[in-house]
Each structure stands twice: as structure tokens, then as C-alpha cells.
Amino acid sequence: MDSDYSRLDSVSDEELTYTMQRRANEEQELKDRALAEKLFSDLQISAQEQERRDSELAKSLCDRESEEDEERRKREQQDEELAQKLAHQCNEEEERERKEREEKDTKVAKDMSDPELEKIKRMAQEKYDQQVAIALFEDDLNRNKEDEEQQMKDLKLAHALD
Fold it and tell me: Looking at the record, which segments are called Disordered (predicted)?
């Protein structure tokens, strides 16, 4: 034991301070290394969690886009079906109105007495006859005018030949 004390006495204060400082530095390095490993581990876990959240978000967005596309296709199909239905209804309405007009015209014609129909026919025939007479008269006038022009030409030609 004396030898231990004698060794201790022989160790200088500087060496003791140096040794204690070195041990403190080693302990701090171990603590720093442990802290760095813990931070690195936490960072890896955080990065993995962020990747998982990003993946879930991307999948969610993709699913939402797919749902929106499907809804849009359904709306377009419904719009097209509605347009076809409206067009069909419009055609049916026009056909119904045409038939109603025809029925009304037929009924009006049937409701008219024979003398009324005869009167209408006679008036129509008279109007037609007037139009034909006017057309024939205009045709005669044009022919007469052409004949007169031809006679004038013939006279001028005869005068020129004399």
C-alpha cells in the first residue's frame, strides 16, 4: 500500500489534472456519441413517418382524383341522357302539336258546310283564274312589244336597203 501512496506522491498535479481532463473528455465524447446516435435514430424514424404520410397523402389524392373522374363521367352520362330525353320529349311535343293542327284543320274543314267549302273553292279558283289572265295578258303585251320592235327593225332595214 505504501507503494501506491508513493506512486501517488510521485504523480504530479499536472499529470493528475491531465488524466482527469482526458477522462472527462472521454465521458463527454461518449455522451455526445450517444446523443448523436439517438438524434440520428429519431431523424430516421421521423423521415420514415414523413415518407409514410406522404405516401398516404399521394394515395388519398389519387383516390380522390379517381372518384372525381368517376363522378364527372357519371354527370356527363346523366347530362347526355337528359339531353336525349329532352330532345325526345321535344320531338314528341312537336309531333303532338302537328297532329293537333292537322286534326283541327280537318275538323274545321268538316265543320264547314258544303256551301262554305264551295264558296272558298270558288274564291280560290277565281283568284287562280285572275292570276292566269294577268299572266296571259302580260305575255300578250310582251309579244306585241316584241312584234312592234321587229316591225321597226324590218322597216329600218327596208329603208336602209332603198
Answer: 1-28, 45-117, 141-162
Taking the mean position of all CA atoms in its chain, how far away is CA 148? 72
Cβ-contact 56, 48 below 8 angstroms:
no
* Type of residue numbered 57: L
Task: Give residue 160's pLDDT.
Answer: 82
Nine-digit cell string for 99? 297532329
* Cα gap 11→17, rounded to integer Å: 10
Q: In whole angstroms, what is the distance from residue 140 CA to residue 146 CA?
A: 10
* Whether 130 contacts 138, CB under 8 Å: no
pTM of the prediction?
0.36
Q: Which amino acid is at 17?
A: T
pLDDT tens digit string along 97-111? 989 988 887 777 666
Domain ranges in the chain? 114-162
Nearest to 86 by CA among 98, 78, 74: 78
